[in-house]
Amino acid sequence: MKLTRFIIQLNKRGKQMIIGLDDTDSKEGMCTTYLAAVLIEKLASFGRIQGYPLLIRLNPNIIYKTRGNAAMAIPIELNRGEDAETVMKMVIDLVEEMA
User: Fold this and answer.
1) What is the pLDDT of residue 1?
2) What SS3 class is residue 70?
3) CATH classification number, 5-98, choose in 3.40.50.2000, 3.40.50.2300, 3.30.70.2200, 3.40.50.720
4) Is residue 1 packed enough to be buried (19+ CB in 10 Å), middle (13-18) or exposed (0-12)?
5) What pLDDT is attached to residue 5?
6) Helices 84-98 and 32-43: angle between axes, nearest 10 degrees
7) What is the pLDDT of residues 49-82, one digit of tens each?
């Protein structure tokens, strides 16, 4: 089983989140930016993406890297703070399914 890294950060009010994705692509397929695009579509019903998703290009000189060698951060403001747990579960399920 492949270990995929992601992080979800909530502010104190529980309405603003930053969802970070990394290490979701492989030589067999998938792409972190594509996964982020799919995730953004699914997040639309829970709130509003704050600006553009952030693409973080990682060190291209790393020997053991995947194709794109990038990470993504998706800032979102939730319509309802109570949805935070639902969003976290949805993100985890999607990452496990697609990565």
Assistant:
1) 37
2) strand
3) 3.30.70.2200
4) exposed
5) 56
6) 150
7) 999 999 988 777 777 666 667 889 999 999 988 8
